[in-house]
Write a structure and sequence with these properties.
single chain; alpha/beta; Rossmann fold; OB fold (Dihydrolipoamide Acetyltransferase, E2P); five-stranded mixed barrel; 33% helix; binds 5'-deoxyadenosine
Amino acid sequence: MKRIYLETYGCQMNEADSELIAGVLEAAGLEIVERPEDADVLLLNTCAVRAHAEQRVLGRITELGRFKARRPELLVGVTGCMAHHLRGRLLDHAHTLDFVVGPDGYRDLPALLERAAHEPVAVVRPDRDETYGDLEPRRAPGVRAWVTVQRGCDKFCSYCVVPYTRGRSRSLPLADVLREVRRSVADGCREVILLGQTVNSWHDGDHDFADLLRAARDVAGLLRLRYISPHPTHVDERLIEVMAEGGPLCPQLHLPLQSASDRILEAMGRGCTLAQYGDVIARLRAAVPALALSTDIIVGFPGETAEDFQQTADFLRTTRFDSAFLFKYSARPDTRAFGLEETVPEVEKSRRLALLIGLQHAISGAMNDAWIGREVEALVEGPARRNPAQLYGRTAQFKAVVFPADGTPAGTLRRLRVTGATTMTLVAAPV
Ligand code: 5AD
Ligand code: SF4
């Protein structure tokens, strides 16, 4: 009996893949354990999106090497987006790393682990047909389930490593997605978040993403439905219409922008101008008045001038996103932008990032303050982490909310009146 310790880095897609990996391993009779000390196999499911993420994993591999020094029979391996890059370094890390398996190799993991006990194993080739649609992930119990509907990406934004690490875009069949949504609800989940790199480009035969949302929304017992991450070029009238219908489909959207300079958007290969992005947001906000919006921004892309940056800051100021994930550009091998000369020095990147963080902090605070006095409905998740006398949940807008514990069970909706707010959390009282 092999015991596996699994650690996850990176985005929700990777978290969902870890649940898939756990499902595959358990189906083969292996056991997932909570502590590396108890394991025969240490597995890091990794992210390659920025150099910083990779550095953390490399540090961790060195650390885990110490376990291996004491127990040479221990297997250490890497799955996920770094597999692609680490493949060539398998030999450098030979004293520590026993296997490297990319995002399309998880189906065979039990057999690969057997093999890794005898020889180094590297499986990183993308597989255009692999969706894992027939496999059952092992989900952590809770109110929320992440359901993968699409793997890989076809956009090839010039900064992004994902199409190289995860391969080309594939949609899971409608029937597989619905089966997973139903299974999650049967297991006690009340909220489902559909996942894909450009999730709203999902399609299956004649069915488009709006069809998928309607079908998933109507699954009995599902209280809330969300999706991440849509691409602005695939937000069409049909999608806006289904968003406007509401119901379990929540008034909340994470719509990555990256930069508000058309010159930079062009160099990033986003396929979307600022005017087009602004138009999408205006139409969404007109159709879904309670819509909460968030975005991703990269500062310091090669060629970003002070003026380009100013345009981004101005756009954040005027558009007023509820929140924004703000990143410094990180050059990634293999990507088209990797060859571009970096024109923004590290200190200037940091300065630009700090400016946007300050700006967005103030906006997020003001956006949350605007909820004070209003009624919201929270999907209760359980006791608040910091204060067990409070319950914690999320509003339809995906805002965290805490309120005095009143026995409302996890997984039910509770009407609340907002009495206070911080940039991160709403404070409320039952009504
Ligand atoms: N450097 C910095 N940020 C990046 N992202 C993707 N690639 C890079 C990179 N090379 C950001 C984008 C994306 C989010 C998931 O990560 O903003 O939307
Ligand atoms: Fe997720 Fe991209 Fe990181 Fe892969 S590289 S884990 S897809 S953020």
